[in-house]
Amino acid sequence: MKKQVTLETIISLSKRRGFIFQGSEIYGGLAGTWDYGPLGVELKNNIKQNWWKTFVTDRPDIYGIDAAIFMNPKTWEASGHVEGFNDPLVEDVKTRKRYRADHLLEEHGVHKADEFSVEEMTSKIKELGLKSPEGNEFGEVKQFNMMLKTRFGASEATAIDVYLRPETAQGIFVNYKNVIDSLHPKLPFGIAQIGKAFRNEITPRDFLFRLREFEQMEIQYFIHPDDQKESYEKWKKSAWKWLVSLGLPEEKMQWHDHAENERAHYAADAADIQFKFPFGFKELHGVHNRTDFDLKAHMEKTGVDLYYSVEGGEKFIPYVIESSVGLDRIILAILCAAYAEDEVNGEERVFLQLSPEIAPVKVAVFPLLKNKEELVEKAREVYENLRKEVSGVMWDDNGNIGKRYRRQDEIGTPFCVTVDFDTLEDNSVTLRDRDSAKQERVSVGDLAHHIKEKL
Ligand code: GAP
């Protein structure tokens, strides 16, 4: 049975079962940061590998890169982030604490406040008589830059300001010419990158949804300007299809086309796939038509020729369709969508219906009893042999068999293998399916093949 799960339930399961922990927890945490535990990092790596295989290794037209997080600060002047990567904030006039003005208005029932100008937000806050949590007046709504800064250099006097990249996209644009010169791809082609991005979010919240440090998976697809509409529609379709292939239910997904005043400074067209999180439909995956905005800006700033020349033909700056998704947001969506509760043998259980491809553990192997040497020895043999054939096999002999099933269900393990006294007689084991909780006997000789087929 699927019910709408709360965020608190997901946070608590994530901690209890070793998926995700609060960042720097023993120091009381650090807002906007979360740490991935042993199961979380497997889930994350499985999703990354799936994305990389789908969009890079399985495609002849997309090239992967891994650019540095720190970039020459002029990059961010050219890209428009120094000038235009802002959030509307409003300050408590006494405490000087800052709040996201659009979030504040939305919390007070104002619809689509993120589409308001700063002047409109200021007057709406006044009209509604909104006060800070401390009961003080608010000042004017102003735009604040969201980029995080640090310093490079041996001494304070000579050090320069550098930014932690707020998007991975610019690492792609500055390497566009390197990829062309080294691999000679013909248009249309794409460059993809997975990596960390950083934003000084004023109100980080909703677990993995709004972070200050997060990971993006982005593709910049370079095209002829005439192909922008067609390519934009194609990338919208492939983003949707990929999310569905991970196991996200389509009935919890919807498109949101951006109005002109909602779009980022670089986008001529933009749409998000929104997912129904416990706190409502919110952005999960973006597709943007960035036109020739970025390449043109870098060409003007550096003087480096970024034109694309068709052999014996025209010369132009390619347009770019961007496909961009946050890995942490996908993980949150997947955990929320996979969470299920039902009853097995009169007992309530919680299980994660993760697709086997991304589940952190594929198979768990247990001896029925951990104090019977002959069972443990046989189970170890089954475990070691299975590990040679399948990756993601876990040994589990903690607690009784019922507890082990519950634990494996809660972490989304699709199959459990139990070695019991019959195994010693007929060399067969019990194979249990997570979703149906049904059990079947399978001979040890066929086990790896049988599981691989199901996976
Ligand atoms: N290069 C385009 C770009 O960065 P964006 O809409 O600002 O566009 C793309 O971000 C995706 O990155 C979002 O759809 C979301 O999944 C993820 N993302 C953005 N800000 C985030 C944050 N503060 N925490 C977690 N994920 C975030």
Structure write-up:
With 455 residues, the chain is of the alpha+beta class. Helices cover 34% and strands 28% of the residues. The chain has helices at 7-16, 38-57, 74-78, 81-84, 101-107, 118-128, 169-173, 176-183, 228-245, 293-302, 327-338, 373-389, 401-410, 421-426, 444-454, and strands at residues 20-22, 34-36, 62-65, 86-91, 98-100, 142-145, 148-152, 160-164, 189-198, 213-223, 253-257, 269-277, 280-291, 308-309, 315-316, 319-326, 339-344, 347-352, 363-367, 393-395, 415-419, 428-433, 439-443. It has a 7-stranded mixed beta sheet. A 5-stranded mixed beta sheet has the order 20-19-21-22-23, sandwiched between helices. Strand 7 (148-152) and strand 8 (160-164) form a beta hairpin. Helix 12 (373-389) packs across helix 15. The chain is globular and about 75 Å long. It starts with 6 loop residues before the first helix and ends with a helix. Bound molecules: glycyl-adenosine-5'-phosphate (GAP).
